[in-house]
Amino acid sequence: MDPLSHLMQRYCFGYTATHDFSVADQIMADDYTFFMGEHEFKGREEAYKPAADRQFEAYPGLGFTVHEFFSNGDRCAMYFSEHGYSKQFDALTAWHGASLYRWNGERLAECRIEQDYYGRRRQLTSKNPDPIDPPACAPWVGPIEPASEANERLVAQWLERGGLLKSRIGSLDDERVAPAIARVIFADEQVKVLDIMSAGNRVAFQARIDGSYAGGLDELAGHEGADAFLYATGVVHVLDDAIGTVRAVTDRYTMERRILAAARNTSR
User: Best label site of 34, 36, 65, 158, fewest CB within 10 Å?
Assistant: First the structure.
């Protein structure tokens, strides 16, 4: 097994699925940095562990399923689900995430991630959990393919042209299982690619989209025209030099909170 793939196997099932922080000490660098939306958690002990522990406390026995993993030997990316029981809501839930990783040759050094907390909230409120996608059959023993600058450039240009929010329905967040589509719509959008990596025809990215909110979320009715920004992390399959399958997760839940908070501050 490739060393980075083996490290990620331990990350997923030796640590994340078991909540064993002693394993985190072994596989994460002391200055491990975790990016999620606009937030940066720097330092395994002082920042990352407290944030992870809050999640584990809120969802005792939290489970983890890997749907896709790929690596070029130097970097890797993953599309996954977390699922469990909420003590606060007395409800079951399953939600998607996407993440990119760097390592220092021995331990993980950085993670860029988004998780679909908007879809999670819907399930907690309705008490109806979403089905969990099938797991990858053998994620850790797949081929280690070299990075492709051409594919990274293709995906970056697609993102910068606004392709993500115009992608086929079913590409973002919980769209394949939700009872109704709740996709953010922006006007005058500008996209900044924050990170990108590839292995063969698969490309993972994190991007920030800025613009004017133009609809899509029921909770933001009446706030159209507000300045907004949205983070997204995902995986794109490039097929015949064109954009193929897209699986991405956005921080629409946190974007909603940002817009509502700004509106409250303006009204004071």
Answer: 65
